[in-house]
Design brief:
The protein is of the alpha+beta class. It has two domains: 264 residues, FAD/NAD(P)-binding domain (3-Layer(bba) Sandwich), CATH 3.50.50; 87 residues, 2-Layer Sandwich (D-Amino Acid Oxidase, Chain A, domain 2). The chain has eleven helices and 20 strands. The strands form three sheets. Strands 5, 6, 12, 13, 14, 15, 16, 17 and 20 form a nine-stranded mixed sheet that branches. Strands 1, 2, 8, 9, 10, 11, 18 and 19 form an eight-stranded mixed sheet that branches. It has a three-stranded antiparallel sheet with strand order 3-7-4. Helix 1 runs parallel beside helix 4, helix 3 packs across helix 8 and helix 8 packs antiparallel against helix 9. The C terminus is likely disordered. The protein binds flavin-adenine dinucleotide. Flavin-adenine dinucleotide (FAD) binds next to helix 1, strand 2, strand 3, helix 5 and strand 12.
Length: 397
């Protein structure tokens, strides 16, 4: 056997899982098709990741949180959701609790850099770049992983974290449900005249969605979601026009705004795999569930999934069992798949309702926001879920 575990993909979730295996002393190989510099020193990609308290705790336990420059971590004190031109408003805050923030915004490249730093220093983890996994075949005793350089590696378990468009998922015969939203998300950093007070804004304007994620200082990440056929027009707007569009989109609450970063664009496609395991094979991260980013759950769910898989592996090791055994993978799948399904379809439902501008949908939107805002248990449940201030049975994060 060449390795105990082969991880496919050195994105944030594949690297998190590698970090989870550091204490195991299992021999782990991580294969990433991109060049080393892309994962060792990733460039800003316009994603400011909203981490839940649980995710911060998980990164801390992995020895990664302390490797992130804390000056770049921005606490999210409050979140407000606006609907079109109506006065309906839903807000979440930490006022009635003893915690300091709903969550934490961290630039994606800093999370990835810290994860790589931790994983690459471990003696039991080998990382290879510019090589992709071409195929995987499994038997009752091992898995064979075919690499693009012609080598074949044998391992006890293969863990795929090769993105929502996972080729290996398909090759392993795992069907998935794909939802093309026909929308494009455009993100960029902007400065503004007035302070954001660490309040996130989500404005479901008619025709497009505009969100503001407060970073430290008078700087925010602005996220514009438009129908795919409008994306090129928005991406080619002059800076002055883009600045004006953002300022007006937030009803001038932040005064004049100025783009200070590059514009990045992401076509929105959601994916949920029908199974998270096959023989000696597990799916984690976006390869298992690729979320619409509006509820900011993708990486949070990915961290949770890899953590559950790691716990199941450690349990097998304690009992002297086989880490690739079906029972080990079934334990992981059972704990992760139902929650991710709930989040995936729940998020898609929110997107369908809040981006539908017909008259009935607009009325339903107003009702939903008013109901959720005036009915404390709904808000309490969502706030608990984000902050882990109290264990929620419904959302077992
Ligand atoms: C605009 C935007 C905002 C977001 N905001 C949030 C947020 O606020 N909170 C949150 O929790 N999540 C957020 N997300 C989601 C989050 O970014 C993803 O969930 C996360 O990046 C998934 O990581 P991953 O490692 O599973 O996959 P990826 O990041 O897609 O990495 C997959 C890796 O696998 C490699 N690979 C693919 N195929 C192969 C192969 N055959 N062989 C070898 N390597 C291979 C790729 O090169 C890549 O490096 C956001 C996403 C977007 C687009």
């Amino acid at each position: 056997m060449d390795y105990d575990i082969v991880i496919i993909g050195g994105g944030p979730v594949g690297l998190s899982f590698a970090c989870s295996m550091i204490k195991s002393e299992l021999k782990v190989l991580l294969v990433e098709k991109a060049p080393l510099s892309t994962i060792a020193n990733p460039k800003a990609d316009g994603r400011e990741i909203a981490l839940t308290h649980q995710s911060r705790k998980a990164l801390n336990e992995l020895g990664v949180w302390s490797l992130i420059d804390q000056d770049e971590v921005s606490p999210l004190k409050e979140a407000k959701v606006f609907d079109g031109d109506s006065p309906s408003l839903l807000s979440f805050n930490t006022n009635k609790s003893n915690i300091d923030a709903l969550g934490y915004l961290v630039p994606n490249q800093l999370i990835r850099k810290a994860l790589f730093e931790r994983a690459s220093q471990a003696d039991n983890i080998d990382i290879i770049n510019e090589i992709s996994v071409e195929d995987v075949s499994t038997s009752s005793s091992s898995a064979k992983i075919k690499l693009s350089d012609g080598r074949t590696i044998e391992a006890k378990l293969v863990v795929a974290a090769d993105s929502r468009f996972s080729e290996i998922r398909r090759k392993m015969g795992i069907p998935s449900l794909m939802r093309d939203f026909s929308k494009v998300m455009i993100t960029t950093r902007m400065t503004h005249e007035k302070p954001h007070n660490h309040i996130a804004l989500e404005c479901f304007n008619y025709g497009h969605t505009l969100a503001l994620l407060p970073m430290n200082g008078d700087v925010s990440s602005v996220v514009l979601t438009v129908p795919a056929n409008k994306a090129d027009e928005m991406l080619s707007l002059t800076e002055d026009d883009f600045n004006a569009l953002a300022a007006q989109g937030f009803n001038n609450k932040l005064g004049a705004m100025k783009q200070v970063g590059e514009r990045h664009s992401y076509p929105l496609v959601g994916v949920h795999a029908q199974r998270f395991k096959a023989n000696r094979f597990a799916l984690i991260g976006d390869a298992a569930v690729g979320m619409h980013p509006v509820t900011a759950h993708g990486f949070n769910l990915g961290l949770r999934g890899q953590n559950i898989l790691a716990e199941s592996i450690y349990e097998a090791l304690d009992k002297g069992g086989d880490i690739g055994a079906s029972i080990v993978l079934a334990r992981f799948e059972k704990k992760q798949i139902n929650l991710t399904r709930l989040m995936f379809f729940g998020t898609n439902g929110i997107v369908a309702l809040f981006t539908n501008d017909d008259a009935i949908a607009k009325q339903v939107r107003k009702f939903v926001l008013k109901f959720a805002d005036k009915f404390p248990p709904v808000k309490a449940l969502i706030t608990q879920h984000l902050t882990e201030s109290k264990k929620s049975n419904l959302l077992p994060f």
